[in-house]
Amino acid sequence: MEDLDHRILAALRAWGTDPRVARAARALSWAGEHAALWLAAGALGAAADRGRRGVWVRATALTAGAHLAGMGVKRLVRRPRPAHVAPLVRTVGRHSFPSCHAASAAAAALAYGSLGSLGARAVPPLAAAMCLSRLVAGVHHPSDVVAGAALGALTARLGARWMTGARTAPAGEGHR
Length: 176
Prior knowledge:
The structure is a single chain. The chain is mainly α.
């Protein structure tokens, strides 16, 4: 698996030799640091969509939660960042697994995407670009990005009922 991770990363990092691609990867890296892009998007959604402000706030909390969960796993696993490619960007930490950029991006894609309108159309492709940019920037192994995206998706999925305010029926009061 490690050999496959190395080969995929080397191939995708090579895309970063194109200055336009490198510029985009750097911009996404900066925007995704500490989930900033996704938290700002959630705050904007909450301000613009007053009727669903609470849902937007909870979706933003899920996105932040995915990022924090990724940070916690990073502290436990302590996998070093790739050393066989030159990174395009500096990183805040030296640990690689999982990608917190990918965790928050996947959580945002599912949480904000479920709210319809612009979020459903714009966030998922931007989240995918964010995940790919971590490889083009050479700061994560592909398995880090997959694990981060899975963690973010799981966080959003587990919090979906809470996000929308859906209530579960008390024990014994199911559908009849």
